[in-house]
Design goal:
This protein is mainly β. It is about 5% helix and about 50% strand. Strands 2, 3, 5, 6 and 7 form a five-stranded antiparallel β-sheet that branches. Strands 10, 11, 13, 15 and 16 form a five-stranded antiparallel β-sheet that branches. A five-stranded antiparallel β-sheet has the order 21-20-23-24-26, with no helix packed on it.
């Protein structure tokens, strides 16, 4: 009994020695001064159910995170007026590296240098040099969505009564400014007319002719004035029918979105459906669009969409027939590891073409493997599974008699159940990311890219960040041939763009994996090319 009491007495002390800690300091990159009240967050990797560890910096910018279990984490620091930073990131607004804590490790001397935000101000004028109020101004920068390089909004503002705008909270970098005048006349009434088209700095209606502005950390870029461009516009009109709803087509919203351009659908016009299902959208410049209608009633979603080409005469005969969303149920099973937890897994459908409506909300996988997706719009989809066990890969996704992994499948209300098989026999690649001097590169972005035949399958792309020692591990790899790349600084998702990858293909390492295969490689970290 005495021996047992002694063991019980020392057990808490032994457990405490296994706990880890992280401590360091936060400075302003611009001034070198310590940053007080910066929020420090240490987030566990691999499980959404584990709570993060947090602390605030003191007057000297110092912080301490104590009693942290061993494991892999992402460490971030943020403070109002600064760009959020991840420890080990290769650049501003980039993902950082993974911190690996061994049992009992005391990680000291962690240093963050936060980058102050930049600001852009100016005025929007009309063709006579008069200020225009109520104009939406956006700062946009290029990014990647599903392998396509697009302009995406980073900040927005609305001009005041003297035409002034202020875009705050911008990280350093190149931005493109747009101004959109959303007058009431743009949403109904009238046919062809001169209207203000969306205008890009320094004063053009062509996004390709827009001039970038360079935002510098902590600085205010003043005097970015530009005039709206007046152009000949037309109208798009038609009818929305809803054969399955007793309420007709009241309160339906119709959206017109540019198709195939660099705006990624962010510049859109909309109109409420008016009497007898008729709608009209005025102030449209000729071009290629997707037109879509949405209607919600008691939790049910009705949708319709189609591509249209708008010429100089406009379009007056669009017909949209709303179809109700439906429930799609299914089951996930793990091949080779029936007891593996599925609590963090989610199933989602991704439209297989750019003209589709937004995908439905993902469905959480229940402990028994069942899931349900609600308000699914009929369309052609591919399957994505997020949060699966690290060693698993997506082996099969069958909808009725159709296998969806290669080419996707058309999903409608009568398509049947979605049966998904994960395999626990995924491959693994590990190694080091090194610079030209063969030194480790903490936070390097390591990307696994499938062979060219399978690059339309986005679930096969994998990326991780090297830890504080330059080490990386990629798990759950489907059998096949791959190329491995490592970059110091690269836009998220750029590796899914074939044009971006071309200059780097010869510098990649190649691996071929079978089920349960394992490879160890050393990667030379590449410098990304700015475009």
């Amino acid at each position: 009994m005495r021996l047992l009491a002694c063991l019980l007495a020392i057990l808490p002390c032994w457990a405490q020695t296994e706990q880890c800690s992280v401590e360091g300091q936060v400075f302003s990159l611009a001034t070198g001064e310590p940053v007080k009240k910066a929020q420090i967050m240490l987030r566990p990797m691999g499980s959404s159910s584990r709570q993060p560890y947090g602390a605030l910096t003191d007057a000297g910018g110092r912080f301490l995170l104590a009693d942290v279990p061993a494991g892999r984490y992402v460490l971030t620091a943020e403070r109002a007026g600064f760009v959020q930073s991840e420890y080990g990131a290769g650049g501003v607004s980039r993902r950082g590296g993974t911190i690996t804590l061994a049992p009992g490790q005391r990680l000291k001397d962690v240093v963050f240098r936060l980058t102050p935000h930049g600001v852009v101000t100016g005025r929007v004028l009309d063709e006579d040099g008069e200020p225009v109020a109520g104009v939406q101004v956006q700062a946009m920068r290029y990014g990647y969505i599903q392998g396509r390089r697009m302009l995406r909004p980073a900040a927005s503002s609305t001009t005041n009564d003297i035409g002034e705008y202020r875009l705050a909270g911008l990280p350093p970098g190149r931005f493109y400014l747009s101004a959109t005048y959303r007058a009431a006349a743009m949403f109904g009434g009238g046919g062809s007319a001169d209207q203000y088209a969306p205008t890009y700095y320094p004063g053009t209606a062509d996004p390709a002719a827009a001039a970038p502005v360079q935002v510098v950390q902590g600085n205010q870029l003043r005097g970015m004035d530009f005039a709206l461009t007046r152009t000949r516009t037309v109208r798009v009109s038609g009818r929305v029918s809803n054969p399955d709803a007793t309420g007709g087509s009241r309160n339906v919203m119709v959206f017109l979105m540019p198709r195939g351009g660099g705006m990624g659908g962010y510049s859109s016009r909309n109109s409420s459906v008016v009497q007898e299902g008729r709608f009209e959208i005025a102030g449209v410049t000729p071009g290629a669009y997707t037109i879509a209608a949405h209607w919600y009633e008691e939790g049910q979603r009705y949708t319709a969409s189609q591509p249209i080409d708008v010429g100089n005469a406009g379009v007056d005969d669009v017909n949209l027939t709303l179809a109700p969303g439906f429930e799609l149920s299914g089951r996930v099973r793990i091949e080779g590891a029936a007891e593996a937890p599925l609590g963090d897994a989610r199933v989602s459908l991704r439209p297989a073409n750019e003209l589709a409506l937004a995908p439905p909300m993902g469905g959480r996988v229940q402990p028994d493997g069942s899931f349900q997706l609600n308000a699914v719009a009929p369309d052609h989809y591919r399957v994505m599974v997020f949060g699966m066990p690290e060693s698993c890969y997506l082996k099969s996704a069958r909808l009725g008699d159709s296998e969806m992994l290669e080419n996707g499948a058309t999903v409608n209300a009568g398509a049947g159940r979605l049966e998904i098989v994960l395999s626990s026999a995924g491959g693994l690649v590990e190694g080091l990311a090194l610079d030209e001097k063969q030194q480790p590169v903490p936070g390097a972005v390591v990307v696994l890219v499938p062979d060219e035949r399978r690059r339309d399958r986005l679930e096969l792309f994998k990326n991780v960040n090297a830890d504080q020692h330059g080490r990386f591990t990629i798990q759950g790899i489907a059998p096949g041939d791959y190329r491995l790349f490592a970059w110091q600084d690269v836009d998220s998702g750029a590796w899914q763009d074939p044009e971006f990858l071309k200059p780097f293909e010869r510098s990649a390492a190649t691996v071929s994996l079978k089920e349960n295969g394992r490879e160890t490689v050393q990667l030379k970290v590449l410098a990304s090319q700015e475009r």
